[in-house]
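Progress against Task 2.4 (sequence-to-structure conversion) is shown through the following example record, which the project officer requested during the mid-term review.
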Amino acid sequence: MRWTTVMALIVLTTPAQLGLAQDAEPEVTAEQAKTAPALSPEQALIKVQSDAFVDAFNKHDAKAVAALWTKDAEYIDDSGTVHTGRDAIEQVYADFFTENPDASIRIDIDSVRQPSDAVAIEDGRALIDPPPSGAPGVSKYIAVHVKVDGQWQMASVRDTWVETPVTRESA
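Structure tokens generated for the chain above:
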């Protein structure tokens, strides 16, 4: 299974909370949401929380990553394996961090759509450094966020590995 997709696990506590007790619920203030003025306030909250995911991932904090998900969340990795529940998702990340102690992630959000007041769909790409073995490519993801008790959390994330051709210029 390629773990560049493990990312998409993009998203949902504030950076300040990542160092707090592990049972703390994610919270993003409206002031923090203003960091992305081209987005709606709700989309900006999701962007802030996506940044928090990157911070937790890059600290190799599986518990903080898992806290960004709903209790019964679903993560479908690029091999099609379904990981259900916050505990299973935490274990996926813990295993990944153990196997990849130097890994860091960068995500590029391509779009955030909000089909209802309590649902948002994020499309993006995740890049892991150092890159995984195998064919070069990028992890594309779709993350479904839901509002739980006023906070956005990931309910479902699906990763897809997209191979990219190697050219003389990219090698």
